[in-house]
Amino acid sequence: MTQLWQWKDKLLKNPFIRSLSVLMAGTALTNLIIVLTTPLLTRLYTPEEFGVYSVFLSLLFTGTILVSLRYETAIPLPEDEDEAFHLLVLSIILAFIVSALLCILFFFMPISQLLNVPELETYMWMLSLSLLGIGIFQAFNSWALRDEQYMMISKAKMTMNSSQIASQLSLCLFQLGLPGLLIGEIIGRMTGSLDYFRLIKRTHKAVYKISAKSLVKVLIGYKSYPIVSSWAALINSLGTQMPIFYLAAHFDAKTAGWFFLAQKILTIPEGLIGFSASQVYLSQAAQTARNSQEHFRQFFWDTVKKMIVIGLIIIGLVALCALLAIKIVFGEQWIQAAEFIQILSVLYFMKIIINPISANFYVFNALGKQFISELIRFILICVSLFLALEFFVTPTTSLLCISLVSATGYLIHGIFAWSTIKEYKSEEIKHD
Q: Which domain holds residue 296?
């Protein structure tokens, strides 16, 4: 018993575990709200409407990679405070510019027709507003990570998700259908950044001392992020979103809606564990790496072991309970989503493990290696989609092929992340 208490005290004193717990607590509360409200949404909106909405979100998450050209991911890295602040300002400026350019692009390109969702054509302009909101949110989130403001991160994320859900539920009263889902999404993205404005004003004395020279300096100094990292991240995002595009275009919006619900449920443990761990890992990795290579190796493998155990427990429980839970909570029309959850559980288990350690590419400035890894994963996903199209005629078998091949891609990505450790010197960690 004494050893048990000693072990507990040791865990609580561990900075990684302590920081992870703060983020997990906030994410857990947010996810609890999602869990409680999603059954209402699935009864107020049809699988077809959710299917079109899922395509909208897939386009949004793909565009998210481009909205700040990945400069926001560099914000936690510089030792110089002013340099980091100008990276924040640059990221926000780029979010406005890129979202406006994409709005023009959406006007001329028949994206909705290509994806077999003509219902979305009228609302493509909303995508730019959501992109702007998420671009600003990402930039502020990275700044909060730099300051290790984990409580603020949890609060901001909860605000974003709560306002989104509340808006979607409220707008349903006006029987808007699909527009209600889309408008609620925009409101959530925009309100999510409000808490961060107060953080910036409170923590940075040079908030009104923005220098054009300094902006140009960080624009050029961190050019590897838009040139290399953005493409790697875009490939990563496309690989993640392509199944939605495939299911909507090859089958129908209803199938895409089932897949969306399955993803939504599995994203809860991934957000609770994987995303929170990624934030903490990125925050602590640079400082840990400066100590010694051996110290960082231990930090790396400790993280992997923790993620394997936690992932097995959480994802395993979700997969086992899926069939009964979906039927009771969401209704008979969503029962197919339960089978999709079980098929995708292997993929999401691997994502929980690999996502935190992917920060190695940024810590050690191994963006070229990240690009190669993401390209391999993207090629594997393309191969899986080809195999699904040619040899598997049902959504279930197609998704099984995609899930297994995608999980293999994440495993390869993790191996590449590990390989970055061997190639650095503790006194020469580059951030340029």
A: 16-423
